[in-house]
Amino acid sequence: RLSIAVPSEPETMEYVLISVPNRVYSQKDLDGRTAQRNLSRNFNFAAPSSLKVGTLGELVSLSDELAKTDAYVCSVVSKLAHYLKELFHDDKAKLAESLQVEGRTMEEFVERFEWDQARYNTKQLPRELASQMTQYVTETESSMKTRTQAYNKVKGNLQAIERKSNGSLLIKSLSDIVDPSKVVQDSEFLVTLLVVVPKYLMKQWEASYESLSDYVCPQSSELVAEDAEFGLFTVTLFRKIVDDFKQAARENKFIVRDFEYSQEDQQADETEKRELQADLKRKFSVLLEWCTLSFGEVFAAWIHLKALRVFVESVLRYGLPPDFRSVALKTEPSARTKLRAALHDAYKGLDASGVSAAEIEDVPGLMPQSEYFSYVSFDIDLTQFIQAR
């Protein structure tokens, strides 16, 4: 660590990752221009410098591919963070505990970054390393889709059952509401219907239900349940006129519920609900553990990919043999403009054209100013994962 600590509130989670040749690098000079002016806190970033280079043409091609891969891997990190946020119902404290990388916070991982030689052997070519990282992240994303779909399916099935239990009288299950003694059963000629009536029409129902059709049993209607919007009434009539009665009821905004009392069906619903609750609890625990582990692994791959980009761009920019120093500068958004100006003043000699970054912004046909500096530079924004949609 090279830093001079700068107190800030709230704590920033944004970094400017730079690389400059060792021949122009001075920790004292960099800290004097940035950290001592409260523009950043600076940390050594141990990007590899001994990778196999291959040909210049391969590096140019790889540079473009790595930019796309960087965006893709970052998107998968964001998806995992977003799903963890959903699992924790936006509990920021629990989310922060899960957004760990090898037992460290995201910031600690960036600020103390060391290349994982055991996982990413530097004897491989940069393209091979990039392919290894991409393959792992792609497999993780595929597994995430499968796992979350399985979890959401069980969750959806349980929510459907709970809606039947907890919804309005229009949709909720009536098995545990209606007393079997209120319903005519096992009759060849008679049947009891259950009718949902808006509360503002309850008096109209009581006054008119007997005349909605022929063969309605007089005084057979009884209010058996009600909620904030509806009342549930029984009515007994002859089976042969059920369809006529339903049609007349609809015309008067009375809703006949399809219902046939069955103790076996009621018990089956209760059993299914208990089984789904147990299954959801198991799947939640497994999915939470997997997402937490995978977030750390994919995040680590993303930062290693940043380090790989630093190597490739440094070789392309500064030439062979690789001899550069990379530093992560932790900065506040409000200090970013001044930080960039300080870095430009420090390293403007690296730009052979002598054109300032501000001037480049206005040159037609060139990349936007944020894409070009006289030194190698990448952004690392960790805030996006805490605030993942």
Brief account:
This protein is of the alpha+beta class and 389 residues long. 48% of the residues lie in helices and 14% in strands.
How does this structure look, described?
The longest helix has 56 residues, at 263-318. A hairpin with a 2-residue loop joins strand 3 and strand 4. The strands form three sheets. A four-stranded antiparallel β-sheet has the order 2-9-1-10, with helices on both faces. Strands 6-7-5-8 form a four-stranded antiparallel β-sheet, with helices on one face. It is of the alpha+beta class and 389 residues long. Helix 2 packs parallel to helix 5 and helix 2 (56-87) packs antiparallel against helix 8 (263-318). The protein has helices spanning 27-33, 56-87, 92-98, 106-111, 126-166, 202-208, 242-251, 263-318, 336-347, 357-360, 383-386, and strands spanning 14-21, 41-44, 100-101, 104-105, 190-198, 222-226, 230-238, 255-257, 324-331, 376-381. The protein contains eleven helices and ten strands.
| DSSP summary, beta strand count | 10
Through-space gap between termini: 33 Å
Q: Structural class of the secondary structure composition?
A: alpha+beta
Rg estimate, integer Å: 34 Å
SSE order in H/E notation?
A: EHEHHEEHHEHEEHEHEHHEH
User: What share of residues is helical?
Assistant: 40-55%
Main sheet: strands, sense, barrel? 4 strands, antiparallel
How many helices in DSSP terms?
11
Contiguous runs where pLDDT drops below 50 for at least 5 residues: 1-10, 354-370
Percent in strands: 5-15%
Q: What does the overall shape look like?
A: elongated
Largest beta sheet: strand ordering: 2-9-1-10
- Average of the residue pLDDT scores: 88
